[in-house]
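1st attempt posting a full record on here, be nice pls
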Amino acid sequence: MTDGKGDAWIEAGFREIARSGVEGVRVEVLAKSLGVTKGGFYRRFRDRAALLEGMLQGWSAGRIAAIEKQSSLDGATARERLKALIALYSERMNTEGMAVELAIRQWARSDEAAAAAVASVDAARLRNVGHLYRATGLAPDEADAQAFLFYCFIFGQSLLFLERGPRKRAQLVAKSAGKLLEGDG
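the predicted structure (as tokens):
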């Protein structure tokens, strides 16, 4: 697929998908944004489909590696790790990362490969956060339900435009996040 030199094309593809969706990820557009010819693309990828495949593989591998690292205890308690995850995803907004996430999820609505990539990422996220909730003492079914609520909160809060200032929003997010940690030991 790629020889390592295709990474610039994949990164350009992520920037473009965040900006205009998968339809905007076109060889001509990416070549122009990289300041190179289309010929450089074809030395690294056989076609656009290979680039899109590389983007999905890179996105899913990156998201899975991130949640595995972020949910690793590394001397912290499960509760501390959950609090850190909530803070990570709710206190600072990664607008480009969220735009890529949303664009890939939209793509997944009409493409089997994208749907499979999203499903594998979601499964890894739920599995890893579910393990943290189990480590707090919750029964497996309760831990899985909490992990589901956790991700509904993480993604939902990032999509809401509240009629409140940043301070009020931070207070609401903190209070809501506290609910995700109640009764978990």
